[in-house]
Amino acid sequence: MTQISVSNAGVEFGATRIFQGITFTVGEGERWAILGRNGSGKTTLLRLITGSQQPTEGTITRQPGLRLALLEQHRDFGGAQTVWEAGAGEFADLLALERALSEQANVLAEVGEAATPQMLARYDRDLERFDREGGYTFAPRVDAVLQGLGFDAEKARTQPLEQLSGGERGRLGLARQLVSAANVLLLDEPTNHLDLETTRWLEEYLRGTDKTILLISHDRAFLANVVDHVLHLEGGSAVEYSGGYEAFVVQRAERRLSQERAFEKQRKVIAEEEDYIRRNIAGQNSKQAKGRRKRLNRTPRLSGPTSEEGSAMGLRLDMSERGGDQVAIARDVTIAVEGRTLIKGFTATIQRGEVVGFVGPNGSGKSTFLRALVGEREAAAGELRMGGSVRPSYYRQDMAQVPIDRTLYDVINELRPQWERRQVQGHLARFGFSGDEAQRRAETLSGGERARVALAMMVLTKANFLLLDEPTNHLDIESVEALEDALGEFEGTILLVSHDRAMLEALTSRVWVLHEQRVTDFPGSFSEWEEQSREREHAASVAASEQEALRRVRERKTTRRREVQRDDTRGALQQLRRKVEDSEKEVAALESKVAELTALLEDPELYTTRQGMEQSLLAGKELDVVRKKLDAAIEQWTAATERAEQSAAT
Question: Nearest-5° angle of CA 352, CA 527, CA 319?
């Protein structure tokens, strides 16, 4: 069933045309990637689909009653006070009802036999509404999404919203969008604030949902694992590709090759026609030459793929000197911020020519380590330094290295004062800033434009050691591919902090994994690390599913009817209540065992030795057994609770 139909849509702002002639249809349950260079109109297209912006030409048709959710950049959470309330979004009314039920249950338990019929009737009425409107399912869903995106679901119930950082608010906005009742999710760069683990969780979530998805992203591995359709904005319009991202890459290459061949063929035909016209326009074949000239003037000119390729970054990374064999040395290093230890007792050496991938949860200390390594802050303990003849270049995640109070021309001219004007402008043009754009002030740039300026500056350093902190965050796919190619050809040393799995897989020869203050130094590529840590991912998925099941148990215990306490000595009821207590104890014991095994399997150090790998396989099997026992125990607890409630009510 078609949910969205876009027909010949175009958008203009004054004399500037963003795109034109875009036509495609979105069916129920499809997962689309909206791809294209920065500035090609991807976000504008999403606004057209939601109806918040109208096309200059063409039409957008939506299925009647269709509900769409677009993540707003300003992160407006309404009147929410806590993280959980903000994540729950449109379910705020049910959240308030849940609190009211809990308060009523406490009052009923306190007054006992003195409970009035009106009090009991109100409780029954509210409980029936809570159940009818999905009260037993919405809270576990919110908890699961918050937990999956890196929040503590229990802590989120009381954590003030104002405590969150910008990145955390971005993740919370995504959580709010995912739990909404919308039929269509429009996701604009959803992985920008996610680390590797939460990105994997989001992949699984999107693959498992039956909602329709339109997705803008530059994360190639994420796209390959999620989407089944691609719309590529290029050349002022868009081309639809069938199949997932990998199929798109192949089809795009074939299309460009075919386009180039057609362009070359037409170019030769035009040259031959023009030659004939020149030779015969004044001779006896003048009539035929004039006829050919008319036909030639009416012939639509094909454009070659080079017109689209021309705005890709001309990125090449050269070194001014080779540098020493030991590039960076850490000996028993501890990194701390405001008294909080981030990294403890880390020892390692980076050798010349290595590409080290540095991965770990957001906020765990990777960026702080890089700043300490370049001397911007002190290590709390230990020795952290660079080797002899090492010339570093540091790409900061916040791109603070780009001066915002100067023009782009001035930024480059200060780095190369001996250059002539044409050389400065030529260098900027290679990064997509041509003509008058060289006079733009850096403060007017978008995130993607500022990232290209930062790379243009990095090229001029001629460094032999690159420290890159999330360099792909604001780049479009074509720019990411250009950066990856340049890094692949770079002969120096690289320390790469990134959540871009495709780049990590393509480049790394070694991996540092930061986990709970410890850095595991894995002597292999990122692909090998992922292969060896399958049990770790398995443990995480088991833990997530069990946490959701246990949250359902707790939710039921919180909102179920609290029976008025009375002196009831019936043996059957006492026995049922003992059964409930025994079931609760068994659930708690098995929950503790799941947590113990999960913690063991999540320790990266376990996967660096053969003995550890064997231990992880055994622990993974045991985790499966315990999980099944826990599932059975939860079912027994649920059944015992229902029987006890039914018996107490009679």
Answer: 25
Structure tokens at 618: 């055994």
DSSP, residue by residue, 457-500 = HHHHT--SEEEEESTTTT--HHHHHHHHHHHHH--SEEEEE---
- CA separation for the pair 429, 399 (Å, rounded): 20
Cα angle: 422, vertex 427, 429; to 5 degrees = 90
End-to-end Cα separation, the chain, in angstroms: 50
Q: Which amino acid is at 257?
A: L
CB 483 within 8 A of CB 475: yes
Nearest 5°: phi and psi at 395?
-95, 110
- Give me the count of residues in the chain: 650
DSSP symbols for 511-571 = EEEEETTEEEEESS-HHHHHHHTHHHHHHHHHHHHHHHHHHHHHHHHHHS--PPP-----H
- What's residue 544's pLDDT? 57
How confident is the model at residue 565, as a pLDDT?
41
Predicted pLDDT at 287: 76
Report the candidate in 207, 196, 212, 213 with the shortest Cα–Cα distance to residue 359. 196
> Angle at CA 212, nearest 5°, toward 206 and 218?
60
Lookup: tokens for 229: 């359709």
* Cβ proximity of 552 and 631 under 8 Å: no
Dihedral angle over CA of 429, 434, 436, 437, nearest 10: -70
DSSP 402: S
The angle at the Cα of 165, spanning 160 to 168, to the nearest 5 degrees, equals 85
* Token pair in block for residue 505: 């897989």
CB-count exposure of residue 226 (10 Å: 0-12, 13-18, 19+): buried
23, 9 contact by CB (below 8 A): yes
CA 549 to chain centre: 26
The secondary structure of the chain in percent helix, strand, coil, rounded to multiples of 5, reads: 50, 20, 30
Taking 50 as the pLDDT cut, the residues of the chain under it are 306-311, 561-569
373-380 — which CB contacts under 8 Å span 24+ positions?
A: 373/328, 373/467, 373/495, 374/467, 379/333, 379/334, 379/335, 380/334, 380/335, 380/336, 380/341
Pairing of strands 510-515, 518-522: antiparallel
Q: Nearest 5 degrees, angle CA 366-CA 367-CA 370?
A: 90
Query: What is the Cα 328 distance to its own chain's centre?
Result: 30
> b/e string for 112-132 if b means 16 or more Cβ within 10 A?
eeebeeeeeeebeebbeebee
What region does 485 belong to: left with phi over 0, alpha with psi -120 to 50, or beta? alpha
The Cα 582–Cα 640 span in angstroms is 10
Q: Rounded to two decimals, what is the model's pTM?
A: 0.77
